[in-house]
TrEMBL record, chain A:
<dbReference type="InterPro" id="IPR037225">
    <property type="entry name" value="Nuo51_FMN-bd_sf"/>
</dbReference>
<keyword id="KW-0004">4Fe-4S</keyword>
<dbReference type="GO" id="GO:0008137">
    <property type="term" value="F:NADH dehydrogenase (ubiquinone) activity"/>
</dbReference>
<keyword id="KW-0411">Iron-sulfur</keyword>
<dbReference type="InterPro" id="IPR036249">
    <property type="entry name" value="Thioredoxin-like_sf"/>
</dbReference>
<dbReference type="InterPro" id="IPR011538">
    <property type="entry name" value="Nuo51_FMN-bd"/>
</dbReference>
<dbReference type="InterPro" id="IPR019575">
    <property type="entry name" value="Nuop51_4Fe4S-bd"/>
</dbReference>
<keyword id="KW-0408">Iron</keyword>
<feature type="domain" description="NADH-ubiquinone oxidoreductase 51kDa subunit iron-sulphur binding">
    <location>
        <begin position="447"/>
        <end position="492"/>
    </location>
</feature>
Automatic annotation (TrEMBL), chain B:
<keyword id="KW-0479">Metal-binding</keyword>
<comment type="similarity">
    <text>Belongs to the complex I 24 kDa subunit family.</text>
</comment>
<feature type="binding site">
    <location>
        <position position="135"/>
    </location>
    <ligand>
        <name>[2Fe-2S] cluster</name>
    </ligand>
</feature>
<dbReference type="InterPro" id="IPR036249">
    <property type="entry name" value="Thioredoxin-like_sf"/>
</dbReference>
<dbReference type="GO" id="GO:0051537">
    <property type="term" value="F:2 iron, 2 sulfur cluster binding"/>
</dbReference>
<dbReference type="InterPro" id="IPR002023">
    <property type="entry name" value="NuoE-like"/>
</dbReference>
<dbReference type="InterPro" id="IPR042128">
    <property type="entry name" value="NuoE_dom"/>
</dbReference>
<dbReference type="Pfam" id="PF01257">
    <property type="entry name" value="2Fe-2S_thioredx"/>
</dbReference>
<dbReference type="InterPro" id="IPR028431">
    <property type="entry name" value="NADP_DH_HndA-like"/>
</dbReference>
Length: 536, 164
């Protein structure tokens, strides 16, 4: 298959819906389903029936504004099915009103204004298909240009060309570390080995993060396409997606996507009539935060306990079963198809000097608009929280935002104007992480938050190295005593010392970053720690 | 594929063992299929008992200690049977900020069980999860697989009381 054949195929799939004037799209991602999207979809399908062939009802992926779910959007043919009205908090009873309004003005009482900053200020690359295509539909993905990047790479580019585009794009790993993706790919590509592996890390153990879940539930083919391009570039023929068992819907959609891609010749043997073959297999995680750590993740795929090992050797050299292995996160792979399609330079023109492209963030906690957003790197925290997120509800004051999960830290109000990118967050003692942002208002106690994260790290420590195993336990017991106003000043000093030791001597990222929430809250909210001292 | 050893007999004539065997066969009885196999045992039987661990160990030709080590390392695997219903309270950061701790305490008080335990009449298991990824609905609760959000403790208990 060449690009022209694929374009014909896409045209054919678009023609199926050529007579459709309107689409009624119901968000069927996990969050909206939990708020009752399935009955809404059923009611709309039943209500429209066969009576209006020009109107199509379909389930789609995440539209972003989870706090207002279930969401329904109406797209009209003019503007190529793009002009949409969005309805919020829809129930099955509203279906009749929505159907009745299709030819006239929208139902005002349900309307969610699309010109509000939450929608208007976003720039979508990773999520460009989310909320628009049916994640279970292979035809739907091809119709919007899916798999053209893979076929282009296979038919018109050498692996070196692909590596160059990815390197030029300046894309950095979206799992949290921010390691340059092009460099990682090139390292694995250079390894002389007969067998290489690609792994997609879809473990997403950070509490408060749900970007990977939403991407997999909204556009699973996009991730598979990115993995296939990566496999071609580095010379692998076997790939694994390591996905959390806690995300059953994501697993199901991924399975469907792999099956359909294989049946249509985009996975499996001789993809696109070239010599390139790729098998993709799903491996289920079993609930261990440490498996986000790449060496632990590989141990888990091998059927062992998910315990990390020292690096080097890095997985690029000796990974799964000792072979060179490329591990990237879901969002990183989801960025690949647009980079190949539009070129690395285009991608590099978005974002900041050292952090290119966009980033998907999960907004949660005490914030008006909870949900998923995608903004260019370098957007200020204030814009994200106050403008896009709609600020703090209930007239309360903003206190801090926690980024990077248990490996990150808390950012106080005085630093809200910082432009968000990998390096600026590090200067504040926190990190990008996978993109979870948890907003806290004035009622949150920071000592309590630090204790919460330490309890998390303590129970999630795999126990292999002593500093992490016993250090986190000691830190937790001091924080617990602090929270109960029983700790002395000497213990507070000991806590600081422990932070340094655990950070410097732990084997893997879990232990090395476990003290971050404590250090960052101590740095910005020292007075709260002092006020909790038992002998104060 | 390597030479197949004689496979151990099924622990019982329960048809669900066929599902477990199918998983192992699909993976060529390779030792790296251990986690997949344990998932399939737990999906079929609800938990992993000693008999099933022994059976899996013998089938995959692994030492029992290793199988036990893996089964106890991962949070999702449980060696205790669950009740007829399971209530999982998400204790992720967003849910914590929105009061998941209070929900767990209230449930502990009401049913006199700790997280990970089952009521004496076998009706309800109380569990906690690290993050179910439904942060927009915080505090999120999963009752028998269905995610529910934005519940307070009284409406949650009312929902649990409705279960038979």
């Amino acid at each position: 298959m060449n690009l022209d054949d694929l374009a014909d195929l896409a045209e054919q799939y678009r023609a199926i819906d050529a007579n459709v004037e309107r689409e009624v799209r119901v968000c069927m991602a996990a969050s909206c389903q939990s708020s009752g999207a399935a009955p809404v979809l059923d009611a709309l399908v039943a209500g429209l029936g066969e009576s209006q062939p020009a109107c199509k009802v379909k389930g789609v992926g995440c539209m972003g504004l989870c706090s207002a779910g279930p969401l329904v959007s109406i797209a009209h043919r003019d503007g190529s099915l793009e002009e949409s009205t969005i309805y919020r908090d829809v129930t099955a009873d509203d279906a009749a009103d929505i159907i009745a309004s299709l030819d006239g003005p929208p139902v005002e009482r349900l309307r969610c204004p699309t010109d509000q900053p939450f929608f208007a200020r976003q720039q979508k690359i990773v999520l460009e298909n989310a909320g628009i295509i049916d994640p279970d539909s292979f035809k739907g993905y091809v119709a919007v240009g899916g798999y053209s990047a893979l076929i282009r790479a296979l038919s018109e580019m050498t692996p070196a060309d692909v590596l160059r585009e990815v390197t030029d794009s300046g894309l950095r790993g979206r799992g949290g570390g921010g390691y340059p993706t092009g460099l990682k790919w090139s390292t694995v590509a250079k390894m002389p080995a007969t067998q290489k592996y690609v792994i997609c890390n879809a473990d997403e153990g950070d509490p408060g993060a749900f970007m990977d879940r939403a991407i997999l539930e909204s556009d699973p083919h996009r991730v598979i396409e990115g993995m296939a391009i990566a496999a071609y570039a580095i010379g692998a023929n076997k790939a694994y997606v390591y996905v959390r068992a806690e995300y059953p819907l994501a697993v199901e959609r991924l399975q469907t996507a792999i099956r359909k891609a294989k049946r249509s010749g985009f996975l499996g043997n001789k993809i696109g009539d070239t010599q390139f073959s790729l098998e993709v297999e799903i491996r289920l995680g079993a609930g261990a935060f440490v498996c986000g750590e790449e060496t632990a993740l590989m141990a888990s795929i091998e059927g062992l306990r998910g315990q990390p090992r020292p690096r080097p050797p890095y997985p690029a050299e000796s990974g799964l079963w000792g072979y060179p292995t490329l591990i990237n996160n879901v969002e990183t792979f989801a960025n690949i198809a647009p980079i190949v399609r539009e070129g690395g330079e285009w991608f590099a023109s978005i974002g900041t000097e050292r952090s290119k492209g966009t980033k998907v963030f999960a907004l949660a906690g005490t914030i008006t608009n909870t949900g998923l957003i995608e903004v260019p790197m370098g957007t200020s925290l204030r814009d994200i929280i106050e403008v896009i997120g709609g600020g703090i509800p209930g007239g309360k004051a903003f206190k801090a935002v926690q980024t990077g999960g248990p490996s990150g830290g808390c950012i106080p109000a005085q630093h809200l104007d910082i432009a968000v990118d990998y390096d600026s967050l590090k200067t504040l003692g926190t990190m990008m992480g996978s993109g979870g942002m948890i907003v806290m208002d004035e009622t949150s106690s920071m000592v309590d938050v630090a204790r919460y994260f330490m309890e998390f790290c303590m129970t999630e420590s795999c126990g292999k190295c002593v500093p992490c195993r016993t250090g986190t336990q000691q830190m937790h017991s001091i924080l617990d005593r602090l929270a109960k106003s029983q700790a002395s000043r000497a213990e507070l000093a000991l806590l600081e010392e422990l932070c340094e030791v655990v950070q410097a001597t732990s084997l893997c990222g879990l232990g090395q970053t476990a003290p971050n929430p404590v250090l960052s809250t101590m740095r910005y909210f020292r007075d709260e720690y002092e006020a909790k001292l038992g002998d104060a | 594929m390597s030479l197949q050893q004689a496979k151990p007999p099924l622990p019982s004539d329960d048809k669900r063992w066929k599902l477990v065997n199918a998983t192992m066969r699909r993976n060529g009885y390779a030792d790296h299929a251990l986690i997949e196999t344990l998932h399939s045992v737990q999906d079929a039987f609800g938990f992993l008992d000693e008999g099933s661990l022994r059976f899996v160990a013998a089938s995959l030709d692994l030492p029992l200690s290793k199988v036990f080590g893996v089964a106890t390392f991962y949070h999702l695997f449980t060696l205790k049977p669950k009740g007829r219903h399971a209530c999982v309270v998400c204790t992720g950061t967003a849910c914590y900020i929105k009061g998941a701790g209070g929900l767990v305490e209230r449930l502990q008080e009401r049913y006199d069980i700790n997280p990970g335990e089952t009521t004496e009449d076998d009706r309800l298991s109380l569990l906690t999860a690290r993050c179910v990824g439904a942060c927009g609905l915080a505090p999120a609760i999963v009752i028998d697989g269905d995610v529910l959000g934005k519940l307070d403790s009284e409406s949650l208990i009312a929902k649990l009381e409705e279960l038979t």
